[in-house]
Write the structure tokens for this entry.
Amino acid sequence: MNQLKYTFFLLFQLPSAFFCGVRLKYLDSLKSIVSINHSWFNKNPFKSIFWAAQGMAAELTTGSLIKNAIKESGVNVSYLVVENKSSFYKKATGKIIFECNQGKELQDLFNSFDHDNNKAIIELKSIGTDSNNIKVSEFSFTWSLKVRS
């Protein structure tokens, strides 16, 4: 993972995530880790991180895993979020770490693509924890994937 490359990607392709403080910390074929710090820019009136800013961080964990799987597989795939759900358990203050570790499921899905099976739906989850490793929020993104001809 090239940290500088992803920072520029955020700045130019997802500027709202960049300015909210979303940062990709780790990415390999099995998991993705993204952080966001509570700040003036992403706060809500309840003195915690706004739910939408948390959602951007959570979505980046799942989307970066898909983007990485596409790169590793060499398969030309379009992908789009078709549904998302979220649950909140505790105020998000300080540094929140979001993690998605479903890379193996994505690898299996990409290995299943062939001429007859060129579409798929997958649900990827991202869990946000605080500095005490307490679950703050959980997001679920349903992605539609289609092999391009």
